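> forwarded from #structure-qc
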């Protein structure tokens, strides 16, 4: 059994134990695609999965505009409120962290397992929600940068 397969089985088991259906389903899906010999699809997922996932997430965030649940008036009013202004600042900070996460994951893909384990611990211990490795990667990059500053 290849090392990658063992890791995927371990992640699948951790996902089940931690009651993280997204993690378990993702690991099981990749294992199934691997065993079915669908290497081309695996390569496509590896190359395009993050962008595709971000598109789906963005679609979900924009859907309320199309359904009429959020209109121009609500958007304009949100910019005039403290929570709305803080949300804009939060969006700026989050996108910066997400970019750092992508950079970290691109340069050090082996760090993904630690982030998955950390995400699962966050689910089990704190009732967290795994929204993906980008924010975890961004926070990891930020913590590593702070550690680098402090260790000088």
């Amino acid at each position: 059994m290849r090392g990658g397969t063992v890791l995927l089985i371990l992640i699948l088991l951790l996902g089940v134990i931690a009651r993280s259906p997204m993690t378990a389903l993702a690991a099981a899906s990749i294992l199934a695609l691997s065993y079915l010999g669908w290497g081309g699809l695996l390569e496509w997922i590896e190359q395009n999965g993050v962008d595709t996932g971000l598109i789906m997430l963005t679609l979900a965030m924009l859907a309320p505009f199309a359904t009429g649940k959020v209109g121009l008036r609500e958007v304009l009013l949100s910019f005039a409120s403290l929570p709305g202004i803080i949300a804009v600042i939060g969006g700026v900070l989050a996108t910066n962290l997400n970019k750092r996460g992508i950079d970290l994951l691109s340069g050090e893909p082996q760090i993904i397992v630690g982030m998955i384990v950390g995400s699962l611990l966050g689910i089990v211990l704190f009732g967290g929600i795994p929204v993906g490795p980008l924010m975890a990667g961004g926070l990891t990059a930020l913590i590593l940068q702070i550690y680098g500053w402090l260790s000088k």
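QC bot note: The longest helix spans residues 39-67. Helices lie at 3-17, 21-35, 39-67, 72-79, 82-107, 112-126, 133-150.
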